[in-house]
Known about the structure:
The structure is a single chain. It is flat and about 155 Å long. It is 75% helix and 0% strand. Helix 15 (412-432) packs parallel to helix 17. It is an all-alpha fold and 707 residues long. Among the domains are: 14-25 and 42-141, no CATH class; 405-547, no CATH class; 555-705, Methane Monooxygenase Hydroxylase, Chain G, domain 1 (Up-down Bundle). The protein has helices at residues 2-6, 14-24, 38-141, 147-150, 155-171, 174-205, 208-218, 224-235, 245-263, 267-292, 299-320, 329-345, 348-370, 382-394, 412-432, 438-467, 481-507, 512-553, 573-592, 596-617, 624-642, 647-660, 670-674, 684-691, 700-706.
Amino acid sequence: MATTAELFEEPFVADEYIERLAWRTPGGGSRGGEAFDPKRLLEEFVNHIQELQVMDERIQRKVEKLEQQCQKEAKEFAKKVQELQKSNQVAFQHFQELDEHISYVATKVCHLGDQLEGVNTPRQRAVEAQKLMKYFNEFLDGELKSDVFTNSEKIKEAADIIQKLHLIAQELPFDRFSEVKSKIASKYHDLECQLIQEFTSAQRRGEISRMREVAAVLLHFKGYSHCVDVYIKQCQEGAFRRNDVFEDAAILCQRVNKQVGEVFSNPETVLAKLIQNIFEVKLQSYVKDQLEEHRKSDAEQYLKNLYDLYTRTTNLSSKLMEFNLGTDKQTFLSKLIKSIFISYLENYIEVEIGYLKNRSAMILQRYYDSKNHQKRSIGTGGIQDLKERIRQRTNLPLGPSIDTHGETFLSQEVVVNLLQETKQAFERCHRLSDPSDLPKNAFRIFSMLVDFLCTEHIDYALETGLAGIPSSDSKNANLYFLDVVHQANTIFHLFDKQFNDHLMPLISSSPKLSECLQKKKDIIEQMEVKLDMGIDRTLNCMIGQMKHILAAEQKKTDFKPEDENNVLIQYTNACVKVCGYVRKQVEKVRNSMDGKNVDTVLMEFGVRFHRLIYEHLQQYSYSCMGGMLAICDVAEYRKCAKDFKIALVLQLFDTLHALCNLLVVAPDNLKQVCSGEQLANLDKNILHSFVQLRVDYRSARLARHFS
């Protein structure tokens, strides 16, 4: 059986079990070269099966025995549990009886305690009254003999007694007890002073427990507030030694906040009183010293200091909001800030506007002085308005042209300075203005910016630029107005950015928004009118310059050469110079403007350029070779027109080029050319006018073909 047990392994697998049994049987396999002996293996299997049956019977008997034992123990355990339950019920009943008995006894004890207290309280009061009468008699006799008054270590007990005697003395008639009342009051005052002195000494020694004990005694004395004052005063000793009074104040309050709850029964009141003292004494004195020094002498420094001090004060207030200062600490701190700055904030905007006005005027004057320019006044009134209306409708220069020597009288440095001053003014306005006055004050600052930047600087430069534009018939005129346009355009972008970034947040939710937008719109429209006028007159001058070039360089013999067979040039000298001039002006326009304005101006310039060349070509007669040269010139003009990158201008020159073909086409082909795609829609008079320019027009053959 032992051998059989050894063949069992966990986990049990029947196939592996048979394999192990066969392997252990001699002749059961090929192990060691032995021959296979099936009979012996069968015999071994039969014997092993018998062993397994015997083992199974033994195990079965053991299992039955264990089951019987388990059933017996289960019955015994169940019986024991029933007995325990019965015992538990008995114990629970005893517990209920005991609980009822305890409740009964407790009720009796409480009743007895109430009776004892009812008897003891009057007795204690009588004893207390007797003691107070005893102490009162000592004051009445004028000699304090009790140990409580003579022993300095019993100052706490003495304070309690004298406080009660002081209350009693106040109820006594003055005529009979004036002397004793005076003595009690004197002792009350002496003890109060001793307690405050003891509190002061304990604070200097850093004895928190002693401070708390003395403060609790003084709480019932009139001098309790003086104790708090002493505490506040000593807290500040040596606290403000650095240059930054605001940081010192924050550190002090942080330190006191941790300590005050351990000393006083009302820490929020004491901390609030400390903060009030810091604001009304330290900060107010510091602010006054910083501001009064520059208030009348230096507006710029005054405003910078006011903004800085107010900002740092509000930041300190934000830090103090973390502390417990009572119910409405926001209102409390706001009132403290207002008490410091109210005299400065009442007239803040007047100081701001006055400074901004003077500063802006100085920036402009310094710029004009650097240019050695005496700023001329732009007239106002009926005559000037009449001139302005005439100039807008006729585009005629009224008055003599001014030579600006290429100076635009616009400076980005000036603009940046003005915008920077205004930006700082907006920031101060946002911080220092009352919320109800903020939109109104911001509008006043914006109006100052419009006056000095837009009117006094940009508008003046536009007026000067307009006056500097020469007449259209001037020769070799220098055109600087496009430089004015370029700089004005850049300035407009900066002006608009500040409007959106710094003014809009201050007025976005107020009625002043529409007023500011309208003011901005009006000033921009006013300047756009002058810019349009200046650009139009500049284009006229460009066309005038081109006329002078054509008049000086174009010869009649260019298009009717004496020797038709000896023409060596591809296009005329006049064409070369005009195209060179036009290309420079196109480049200048592109550099001076942006967006759709470039296309608009170039379209107008291109149309006028086309009209000039069209009218110019109408002045000459053309031989066959001269017509070919005119076509070459127009082809060059058309190539120049491509630089405009405007479809209409290129189309006009394409049509003009097609018209020039009428100068050279054979008479028999005139009708065919005129009905071509580019010329079919033109008026017949225009076609006729070009054909008339041919030197052979009067020949009967040509007239007959064109009729």
